[in-house]
Structure of RRM domain-containing protein:
Amino acid sequence: MFNNPYPNPMFNNQYFELVRDNQQFQPQKESTHSLYVDGIPNDAQEREVAHIFRPYPGFQRVRLIKKQTQKGREYLLCFVDFDDALQATIVMQTLQGYRFDKNDKTGLKIYFANNPKQEKQNKK
């Protein structure tokens, strides 16, 4: 698991400048400006989720989408958008495993959201 040397996300652009040149935070080919966040509790509100991501530079918005399985189990899809892939990469690396609740045993799992346009271009 990522050992976060900057545990307090309540920062300004100074934090962004510190990690921008670190290879660990460099965007990869599959990087996008949008993140998919797994592990958000079903009763979470958009405001709660936004409080986790808002302190990071480049934050744009949180999108929570309520879904239901065929058997009736409800779950949330969560997407978080940033200005660019570098900012999303920094947030993904920093918050990977973040525990939403004190009883959360696994923490958040954060991935780059699929970009259908990018996938079509890569297949050509």
